[in-house]
Amino acid sequence: MCKFRDHCGIFGISGCPDAAVKTYMGLYALQHRGQESAGIVVSDGENLNEKKGLGLVSQVFGSPDQLVELEGDAAIGHVRYSTTGSTTFANCQPFMINYKRGQIAGSHNGNLINAAGLRSEMESEGSIFRTTTDTEVILHLLAKSPKHTTPESVADALSKVEGAFSILFLTPEYLIAARGPRGVRPLVMTEVDGRVAFASETCAFDLLDLPRGRSLEPGEVVIVDRKGSIESFFPFPKVKSAACIFEFIYFSRPDSRIFDTNVDKIRRRMGHRLAIEQPADADIVISVPDSSNTAALGFSRESGIPFELGLIRNHYIGRTFIQPRQAIRDFGSRIKYNPVRGVLYNKRVVVVDDSIVRGTTSKALNSIIRQAGAKEIHLRVASPPIKHPCYYGIDTPTYDQLVASYSSVEETARYIGADSLGYLSLEGMLAIDELPKIGFCDACFSGNYPIPRVDEASKEKMNSC
Ligand code: SF4
Fold first, then answer.
1. Which of 309, 337, 397, 424 has the highest CB neighbour number within 10 Å of its CB?
2. CATH 3.60.20.10: which residues of the chain?
């Protein structure tokens, strides 16, 4: 069961005879960013072809050798984790359209805060939408652009949207990548021997034995043509960067490099800092696998309390258990984690978690740990309390469901059944030396939203990715 919904992964490659297979592998590495649908669009230089569906990459495509019908030397792909109500085939990405300049497909990670307003404007002018996603709004803007070339139309369309986006477009002639002016969502790029690839995280490049490359700059658009020539430009007015700090806390894999910084290094430092700020008298440190493993190691190193594997995660839970209903959520925690009784029995346990959202997962886990015989549970959270919703591509719940927005730390500890609870402070997190020297978004902790919430309806009506 995932604490957050609506985050996505994107991958694209050009100059590669088996582009669909490479994209399949790239998406496989990015599966943690979205498990509800997967899709690939491929270009053979004249036409685009697509295959997409609901489910994991392996369920949608089978094995890589089943991708023979997707022939071409450039491709883009997408994995999506949407709110359950919007999990329909129509909303699977990449989206592909035919417009006045031919075919174009798009894969998007982020959330456009003015999407609902733009959509109703276009609908009143007669536009017809097939999906409820904000990504389709971008494709409509592109189709309506008066500019004469595809790259110009892309820049023109993206200059009209506000919010967070990392996006890939594929046409028969071009592979185009763009990172929004604030650089909220990550997007990395690599090139070797005429092949150029883009991905949400570098773990996708590792699997393909590609160099780790570099992060696209906030506001950077990169265009790759069929000859492999690369053009980079910055069409948007310069604004302050607001990279999502939660990518370091939870979303990205620890073996990835995002914002030109290793995730593992930052997550470990968060654990160190947490141990200094929120010490606990205990016998063992355990993590909530897998996302808290690295922070728990950091906590253990700094505190000198031995790290143990106290919870074992079942990795083979299907989509059945990714459900919004509370009863199924609780069952999801039980089936996902099993306690190691020999490790926990009669012990004072520090449980390191990466974050607390509703508090329901922590409550279920603490009950499991206590039933296994733990004497005391001291929950330490390697991020500050989440008090505010995210409007930039992560579907955090509303205020009334964010436990830290309506409960004190002591009340939360009582609710989740912990003997003590301590969070990493916002100041402490931002003071970690190893963080890249860029501007961060920390709005879900601080309430300081870097992009004005001009269109509340977009969060309510539109599905982001
Ligand atoms: S509000 Fe939180 S989750 Fe959303 S972009 Fe900002 S830091 Fe990331």
1. 424
2. 8-242
214 DSSP 8-state letter:
E
Looking at ligand 1, which residue's alpha carbon is closest to its atom 4?
390
Q: Which atom of ligand 1 is nearest to the CA of 164?
A: 5
DSSP letter assigned to residue 280:
-
Bond before 6 cis per omega within 30 degrees:
no
The DSSP bridge partners found for residue 282 are: none
> Would you call 444 a catalytic residue per the annotation?
no
Q: What is the pLDDT of residue 246?
A: 95
376 alpha-carbon distance from chain centroid: 34
Q: Which tokens belong to 157?
A: 């369309």
pLDDT value at 394 more than 90: no
Please tell me what DSSP assigns to residue 248: I
Write out residues with Cβ below 6 Å of ligand 1. Answer: 184, 244-246, 390, 392, 394, 441-444
Look at the block and give the residue holding tokens 């490359």: 213
Angle between helices 326-336 and 360-371 (to 10 degrees): 40
Q: How far is CA 290 from the centre of its chain?
A: 15
CB atoms within 10 A of CB 226: 15
Angle at 164 between CA 159 and CA 168, to 5 degrees: 75
CATH topology for the 8-242 domain: Glutamine Phosphoribosylpyrophosphate, subunit 1, domain 1 (3.60.20)
Residue 324 has phi, psi (to 5 degrees) of -80, -20
- 42: confidence class by pLDDT, cuts 50, 70, 90: very high
User: What pLDDT does residue 320 have?
Assistant: 40
Which CATH number is 267-434 given? 3.40.50.2020
CA of 72 to the centre of ligand 1 (A): 36
